[in-house]
Write a structure and sequence with these properties.
By secondary structure, the chain is mainly beta. The chain contains no helices and nine strands. The protein is 0% helix and 45% strand. Strands 1, 3, 4, 7, 8 and 9 form a six-stranded mixed beta sheet that branches.
Length: 107
């Protein structure tokens, strides 16, 4: 996923992603819990919250921002953590985190 950019204090656009296995196939999320996690460049977790919308069978998730989520400008790393019904955890994307850029509000 390319860098996701949002302005400081904004709550749109919604972050939308399709979670895929290493072969590029969307993951079936039925009976799973999905958490959006975002940390600063030092690894300090800023957000750890349930996704707001899920299309379970097609691996599609979205996260709707709150103003507090985007209050701090800067670059962050994010991922989606999935825990299946057996309690097994997998993180998406599998290879590298999503880059989140929160652009400083200049006005």
């Amino acid at each position: 996923m390319a860098t996701f950019t949002i302005k400081q204090g904004d709550t749109l656009p919604t972050l939308v992603a399709t979670l895929k296995n290493p072969l590029g196939v969307p993951v079936n999320l039925t009976n799973s819990t999905v958490t959006f996690r975002m940390a600063d460049i030092n690894g300090t977790v800023k957000i750890s919250s349930a996704v707001t919308e899920v299309d379970f069978s097609n691996g599609r998730v979205s996260y709707i921002w709150s103003e507090s989520d985007t209050a701090e400008a800067g670059n962050f790393r994010a991922e989606f953590e999935v825990v299946n019904e057996q309690g097994k955890k997998e993180t998406y994307p599998n290879t590298q985190p999503i880059t989140i850029s929160i652009v400083r509000d200049t006005v």
